[in-house]
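Hi,

I'm pasting everything inline rather than attaching a file, because the server keeps stripping attachments. The sequence lines come first, and each chain or strand is labelled.
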Amino acid sequence: MNDLAGECGALCRYLVDRDADDYVVGKYEAGHRAEVLGLQAGASAFDRLLLRVGLLHPLMTRAVDGYAALLFKRALLRKKVTLLIAILETRPPFSSLLDRVDDARPAALVVRMLIGALPAILIAVVLAVVFIPLQLSFGVGAVLRGRAGA
Amino acid sequence: MSKVVVVGSGASGVHFALSALAKGHEVTMLDVGNERPAPINPADSFNDLKASLDDPAAYFLGSDFSSVLLPGAGGEYYGFPPSKDYVFSRPAGAEVCARGFNPIVSFARGGLAEAWTAGVYPFNDDDLADFPFSYADMAPYYAEVALRIGVSGVRDDLERFMPFHDNIMAPLDLDRHSNWLLHAYAARRDRLNDRHRCFVGRSRIAVLTAEKDGRQPCSYLGRCLWGCPSDALYTPSISLAECRAHPGFTYAPRHFVTHFRVDGKRRLRGVIAESTEGGGACEIGADALVLAAGTLSSTRIFLNSIREHCGEVMVLPGLMDNPQALVPFASWKLIGEQCETSTYQFHQLGMGIETDSPKEYIHCQVTTLGAALAHPIVQGLPVDARTGLRVFRNVRGALGIVNINLHDDRSGDSTVTLEAGDDLPNPRALVECAPRGQTRRLREAVRVVKSALRQLGCFVPPGMTYLRPPGSSVHYAGTVPMATDGATLTASELCESHDFDNVYFVDGTTFPFLPAKNITFTLMANAVRVADNAF
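And the predicted assembly:
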């Protein structure tokens, strides 16, 4: 299994608790070759670090993704996750998973969603304490290297 | 009978041609003419397609994934699907340069309205205050176009902004969410009318609710965005097919018109077009030329003709475009309801907001999200994607977007000129727009709309409103306005150039004002008016 196939499998389990099938893996790989998406373009050191940490464990995937959703929307991990959602929503049976509504009243749903997201939110907050200084220092480093290069 | 050359097969070109043919004129239509691909599995619904296609991702996202909206790609909530690529592809050398403006042009058979959302809104007398004619003059032409294309709608509170003309069909079946919103409006109508000056009603849309001329009524497949497979949703290529069945009509695709040629008395002699397949330029003789290529392309042809005639590169002020904003919302009561995908997919409701000046009326289209793709919305939520997907699944049936449109005035700060260079085979249009307070006006309109939505029982998520960049509306107008004083670089009441004899504009080029309402219906009606009165 190559890196992208493994990554696709991990992200698919993270998103829908299922393994990706061959079609989804093939499309995920093709998406990475697509010039228009630019997923193979050079990512920053901080971006690569986020991706590595995010793929360590499903809970870390969620926490890093949550961190990126708030503070680094263009993170490579976030882009890869978005590509996979786009593929999954076109492909049964995954597409029907994205249509399914939980069986509960609206107020109960909102409470359940909040409770369900709580662990990831807490870890994302902890990660923010670590990652914000890192993100800033990587950013400053890149600027300084850019100036030195110029 | 005269030989009329029409440039462009968009909404105004085909309706001009139909009327001119009916009056016995010979019409030749020059067009680049990118062709629409045949609809795939026309009986399948949006969800059926996912199962029936061998490669559904290629259909929905594009074989090159160009319809995937990754984070950072802008604030749009749905992109154009791959099946609409033909609308936006253009021949080499036909680029439009722009500063402060996001120009969108089409070289498709049927033009930009091949990818429209089918909203048809007649202008009323307030909208037409700067035009040299009134609603009463236009009413028969609106009715004529409605008869040709099929328009559905009802009399309701929006009639105060949109006159109810003849030939309107029964409305479409409402989806559950739109129906709920309409009931919520009925319950809070007085407060919304008095306090917010907000009125809600059914959209008028160019979609059939009964069989017409071989076209089937809407079958609610939920595929509107990808291209209606039954032609229930009107596009100008349907009228182009009608024109082509007429013995007096000649369609000449794969022609890119660069300019027209006039004699010493500024009288039209011919039209110069280049083949998009190579083979050089040719001249087509004509008694009259009708520019219907869309405001930016018609303006380029006009400016280049002046340049060819006298060597001068003019700058035309007054380009207009509707400022737009997108406001997503969720209706509390529908959270947890299963989303309906087998519905008409574009806006079924409209929202009109009165202002102190009637010309500054704010026009909104309310689209409930049925068959839209999830990823553009999920990636924009400020939570991890797993949580975002769960939220989306449960909120999808309650989601909607209000598309706010504002009017625009002609201004010296928005210009079109030509950019020529040794490395360019032909001069191209150069659009320059300076900010003119649109952002402030949009923010104010967003505030009013949000307030009205809350009154309707909706939740407006913070941070997700998107102010579209100038040019996004695709409703361009105003570079050669109608004027009754005969001034140079203007057009007559019948849209004939005051600078050249027998050269007409029937697209938005001659509009002296751009109301907030989508202009396509008025473009068609005005083209019929010109054909009826000037030919």
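The mean pLDDT of chain A is 85.

If the labels don't parse on your end, tell me and I'll reformat.
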